[in-house]
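Researcher: Quick test of sequence recovery. Tokens follow.
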């Protein structure tokens, strides 16, 4: 089997790592890939959004199927293009990817389908958006409707903060076209859980729950980032809660998308708020989340490769199929560049700890120079995952290994999983 992985971040490295363990003989290609993926397969210097070159590569290499990691090529229509060429591919069409790429589309779909979520309205006029924020009252959530690299959601604790967020998006163009339209949304109280599900458009294979840590600082302080770490499993994401989420959220959402003429296939990610009234959707993503993927896949005991291939080839998942999981816990600690999530430096030499039986280092923002020096090339540089019998031991092992990642200005959180430890 030969699989082409589109993308070059930590999520794609974790996917490559898992596919190689599912099938040690699997021939892996990645475009563009990264130095970590290069140790598992071949990397080809093609951008994830260069659809013409990716089609040519998939044909020339006779790949079994293509796996799309990031959202940008999905928004660009890579699945539509590959299917038109008769090439198997895992991911949603451009129309179905709107579940992530247009928060307005997602919100309207959920409200029409009766999927539990926060009330929200969409605005392009700053004055109207500010008026709605006052109607809802603080705290209130301001969201860029488009893709903003995980940073387009502002929880405004005061109306002044809400005004500043609205102006940043609609007046100052802080998020470009992603913020040309904003959602003003009621604030939901509760704890967040990330829930992934593989789907053929009708059937659902849910994962166990994970929890992301978005803020830069320990104790969840400071600005939002793309994610500073994650852990799994989450005690409050019980089997009963997962079943409820499948019944009340995933199944009606997939039905609504089929009825809209844009059935969703691939990996549907639901960010859930566990409220006093049950789980409600904060947002959907149309692909594997980062860094939750790095925490979840090392815990997966069953094959990921086989159901992904089934979906990519347009076949139905088996009724009653279920994913299997290892005992214990997983904690992923992200090591980020100085200045992240703001202006960062790149090109700093990196020293990494060696992978072990229960410690994995997933590359995210790294680059290999001609002289084989590994250097930083992005905000989130690596994600260090540790497996252990319990969450406390996994956190300690992950933080200790992450502390051995060395480059100028490296920053990390040492409290990933702190809510779970408080429960314990």
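Model:
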């Amino acid at each position: 089997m030969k699989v082409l992985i589109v993308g070059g971040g930590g999520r794609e490295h974790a996917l490559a790592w898992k596919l190689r363990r599912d099938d040690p003989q699997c021939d892996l290609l990645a475009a563009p890939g990264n130095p970590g993926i290069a140790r598992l397969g071949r990397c080809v210097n093609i951008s994830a959004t260069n659809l013409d070159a990716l089609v040519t590569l998939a044909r020339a290499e006779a790949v079994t199927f293509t796996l799309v990691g990031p959202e940008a090529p999905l928004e660009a229509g890579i699945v539509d293009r590959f299917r038109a060429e008769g090439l198997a591919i895992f991911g949603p069409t451009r129309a179905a990817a709107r579940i992530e790429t247009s928060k307005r589309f997602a919100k309207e779909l959920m409200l029409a389908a009766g999927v539990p979520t926060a009330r929200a309205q969409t605005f392009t006029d700053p004055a109207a958006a500010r008026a709605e924020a006052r109607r809802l009252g603080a705290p209130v959530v301001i969201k860029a409707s488009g893709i903003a690299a995980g940073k387009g959601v502002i929880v405004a604790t005061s109306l002044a903060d809400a005004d500043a967020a609205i102006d940043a998006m609609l007046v100052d163009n802080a998020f470009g076209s992603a913020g040309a339209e904003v959602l003003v949304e009621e604030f939901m109280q509760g704890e967040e859980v990330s829930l992934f599900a593989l789907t053929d458009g009708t059937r659902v294979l849910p994962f166990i729950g994970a929890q992301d840590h978005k803020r830069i600082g320990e104790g969840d302080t400071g600005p939002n980032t793309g994610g500073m770490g994650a852990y799994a499993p989450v005690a409050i994401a019980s089997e009963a809660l997962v079943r409820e989420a499948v019944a009340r959220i995933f199944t009606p959402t997939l039905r609504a998308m089929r009825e809209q003429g844009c059935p969703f296939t691939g990996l549907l990610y639901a960010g859930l708020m566990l409220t006093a009234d049950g789980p409600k959707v904060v947002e959907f993503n149309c692909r594997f989340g980062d860094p939750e993927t790095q925490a979840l896949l090392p815990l997966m005991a069953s094959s990921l490769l086989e159901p992904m291939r089934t979906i990519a080839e347009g076949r139905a998942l088996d009724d009653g199929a279920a994913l299997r999981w290892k005992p214990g816990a997983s904690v992923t600690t992200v090591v980020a560049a100085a200045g992240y999530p703001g202006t960062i430096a790149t090109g700093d030499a990196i020293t990494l700890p060696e992978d072990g039986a229960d410690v994995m280092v997933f590359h995210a923002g790294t680059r290999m120079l001609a002289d084989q020096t590994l250097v930083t090339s992005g905000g989130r540089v690596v994600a260090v995952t540790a497996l252990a019998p319990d969450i406390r031991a996994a956190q300690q092992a992950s933080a200790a290994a992450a502390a051995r990642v060395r480059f100028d200005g490296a920053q990390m959180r040492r409290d990933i999983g702190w809510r779970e430890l408080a429960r314990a």
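The chain has a mean pLDDT of 96.
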